[in-house]
Amino acid sequence: MKNKEIKNKSIKEIYKECFDFIRESKNQIYFAIGVFIFFILIGYFIPLPEELELQLIKRIREIVIAFEGLTLWQTIWMIFSNNLLVCFISIILGIFLGVFPFLILMSNGYLIGYVAQKAVFQEGILILWKLIPHGIFEIPAILLSVGLGFKMGSSLFRKNDFRQNFKNAMMVFLFVIVGLLIIAALIEGMLIFLAK
């Protein structure tokens, strides 16, 4: 969207347009939520073959090690920058018929289901309440981004729709998703830092 167009609008008008576009994209967002829940359930109830499970455990350890020795603000920045990249790529690469956003849902959903199952097995069902603050803003931001990525993919062959959808998706990214990710990074960063 051109800078002049944004400058001539009030914050209220910008957010109204953002939420109108989110409502317009509700079918794609609901689809993203459904796929995400499906892969969480697969991750929770269907065990991986041993070799794949070892690779997944190795990846989780690498993530944990990456946070060691970081200050609070470095931790927050690492979470924010990673999530920002994932959300941006989910929208942009949605143009390839939504394949990349689908893979993001699949991998993140499965990982959450897998980790939740292991946590419940070791600590009991109440441990899930402790995990909720980690994703309360991050997961909606990712689902919203993936839904918009699906919207981009579905409008790819309609030139005028695609251009308008791209402008609207970027506006939602800047004014809604980035805000959610900042809040998510602050909460998750503090929780991770305090747990060290």
Describe this structure as you would to a colleague.
It contains nine helices and no strands. With 196 residues, it is an all-alpha fold. Helix 5 packs antiparallel against helix 9 and helix 6 (99-123) packs antiparallel against helix 8 (138-154).
Beta-strand content bin? under 5%
Spans of at least 5 consecutive residues with low confidence: none
Number of domains: 1
> What distance lies between the first and last C-alpha atoms, to the nearest angstrom?
42 Å
Order of helices and strands: HHHHHHHHH
Q: Tell me the total number of β-strands.
A: 0
Note the main sheet.
Answer: none
Key descriptive features of the protein:
mainly alpha; 196 residues; globular; 9 helices
Question: Could you outline the blueprint of secondary structure elements for this entry?
Answer:
Elements: H1 3-7, H2 11-24, H3 26-45, H4 50-67, H5 72-92, H6 99-123, H7 127-135, H8 138-154, H9 159-195
Helix pairs in contact: 2-9, 3-6, 3-8, 5-8, 5-9, 6-8, 8-9
Summarize the structure.
This protein is an all-alpha fold and 196 residues long. The chain has helices spanning 3-7, 11-24, 26-45, 50-67, 72-92, 99-123, 127-135, 138-154, 159-195.
